[in-house]
């Protein structure tokens, strides 16, 4: 048994980075609408540490609105080649403006321009309309840096529960459950 699930996650994530052919940081993010309807989509985790698991988005997107209305959320990593999953439940919180700026600066210029051009999750009349907005953003910031759009930022999921699932023969899977207890964690096992 481990004392801290973040150490175990670091080890599993390092193995996933070495073995997964595409996007080992891809994670299903589950939120809920204000009336309680579940909503899930894939996002890319950009950082993880003892504070939590961070992804970035347009805060005016559907997921941003759902998180603003109900900060409870869940993540699910599924690493098929390793036959492992990590389930995480907790509450979301915004990252600082400095953290959001620092990550935005690492994105490719094309991705930065796309963030300005896109009204993420909103209806789009045609692909040409989006490409026109992208061209306008390109012209607007030509010759200089692309600043972070005001409603584009990072969200951190602060975990209360982390479950590690490992596939075993004959469906005798291994499930380790960590639950936040004050400043630490308690660990137990679950039946498969």
Number of strands: 9
Classify the fold: give the CATH topology.
Answer: Pnp Oxidase, Chain A
Number of domain units: 1
Low-confidence stretches: none
Report how far apart the termini are. 17 Å
- Average pLDDT confidence is 95
Secondary-structure-based class equals alpha+beta
Largest sheet descriptor: 9 strands, antiparallel
CATH architecture: Roll
The share of residues in extended strands comes to: 35-45%
Write the element-wise H/E pattern from the N-terminal end onward: HEEEEHEEHHHEEE
The helix fraction, in percent, is 25-40%
Which value, in Å, is the CA radius of gyration?
Answer: 19 Å
- Morphology call: elongated
Q: How large is the count of helical segments?
A: 5
CATH class category name = Mainly Beta
CATH homologous superfamily heading: Electron Transport, Fmn-binding Protein, Chain A
Description:
This protein has 192 residues and is α+β, with helices and mostly antiparallel strands. It has one domain: Pnp Oxidase, Chain A. Helices cover 29% and strands 38% of the residues. It is built from five helices and nine strands. β1 (26-32) and β2 (38-44) form a beta hairpin. α4 (109-117) crosses α5. The chain is elongated, with a radius of gyration of 19 Å.
